[in-house]
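Appendix C. Worked example: Putative methyltransferase
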Amino acid sequence: MSNFTGTVDYYRRYRPGIPTDVANVLIAASAVETPRRLLDLGTGTGHVVLAIGDRFDEVVAADPDAGMLAAAHDSLRAALPADVMLRLVHATAESFTTPPGWTASLVTICRAFHWMDKPAVLARLDQRVSPAGTVAIFADRSFWTASNPWQTAVRQIITEFLGTQRRAGDSVFTHADRPFGEILAESAFSVVEEVRVPVRRTWTAESVLGYLYSTSFAARRLFGDRVHEFEEAIISTLTEHSENGSLVEDNEFLIHLGRRRGPRTPTR
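Step 2, the predicted output written as structure tokens:
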């Protein structure tokens, strides 16, 4: 069973997309070449491709969850310009395929690198990224690690219902043992640049619940017959913390850009 079983609709509707400032960093990091190609690993419902896919000639998006990929298909086919070649691949980041001779100008891994065999994925990418290409690994803080007071209160409620260890579907989440930048620096993409992009969001009780149900640590099915009790506790707590029904979150995207050593073609 996938860690995200039962979350697809919530993921599509309530997961925050990619902010314009983050999209601009990614586009600027991509090699300027023809054709310009994007490879998005762990695409989920396609948030990254929705944000920057129209700046590329060809896009390959891969995900191991068939439900996520189906949702990505529905949204991306309608959103991308007709002249963008889109290929959706049902595969893990360790086993994805690309057309023969196809190399990426930019690889994006958003909110998904922690699920992967990191050295194996980066070794695989060495043969699938153009000489001037870039690997971008990035994420914002989830509710589990956020420090806003109302998010801390939400996390406390989750632990009261599901236990103090962070869940990963039916398992327990395993934390990365080293910073992603260090792992990236040990790969073929050893020239690493770190970019931080602040983001402010406004939530409602409904969107918070929707977001929680999109995660592996608070998927709706995990609460079983206590789900309505959980929802009541969340709504009650958020009402106490909200101002006119709104909840403000200050977050940040941490972006690691990895490139090969040696001469590079210009980027923009």
